[in-house]
Prior knowledge:
The structure is a single chain. The chain is 0% helix and 54% strand. It is mainly beta and 188 residues long. The protein folds into three domains: 2-62, SH3 type barrels (Roll); 65-125, CATH 2.40.50.140; 129-186, CATH 2.40.50.140. The strands form three sheets. A six-stranded antiparallel sheet has the order 1-6-2-3-4-5, with no helix packed on it. The protein starts with a strand and ends with a strand.
Amino acid sequence: xxxxxxxxxxxxxxxxxxxxxxxxxxxxxxxxxxxxxxxxxxxxxxxxxxxxxxxxxxxxxxxxxxxxxxxxxxxxxxxxxxxxxxxxxxxxxxxxxxxxxxxxxxxxxxxxxxxxxxxxxxxxxxxxxxxxxxxxxxxxxxxxxxxxxxxxxxxxxxxxxxxxxxxxxxxxxxxxxxxxxxxxxxxx
Length: 188
């Protein structure tokens, strides 16, 4: 059993007969009244995100997990298929287990959290950023870069990302996977 002081991003806990992963947390100590921890939890089975507040010192049931590196192979209509980079075994996961599946390119290596009790995969942790090629966007107008204006661009995985006006088709861009936002243009 853990307590609220052990809460951190990525922690998996049992709560309301389901397994949740902590996405965000904030320890709050008001001037009046007891301290508490405000959390945002994502269900690893349904993908539903809930907000919950735990009082300070509350006991939480931690789920022991191990992490393995997997390579993304492909996705079909129902599942995303991954291969373990060590023993080449394959697993398949539903789209709800992924935080931002639109940014996942074939061949990308991700970290998968696996429950040590039953060896079932819980969730997929993507790298902090991915580099993808822009396949479709409106052409940029020369001199129109004075403001922080953006335009939609479709990347090679099919996801749509807002990018600055100077980005053109064929450019490679770095995208933050947790927010799905443009970070920078990458030179070859």
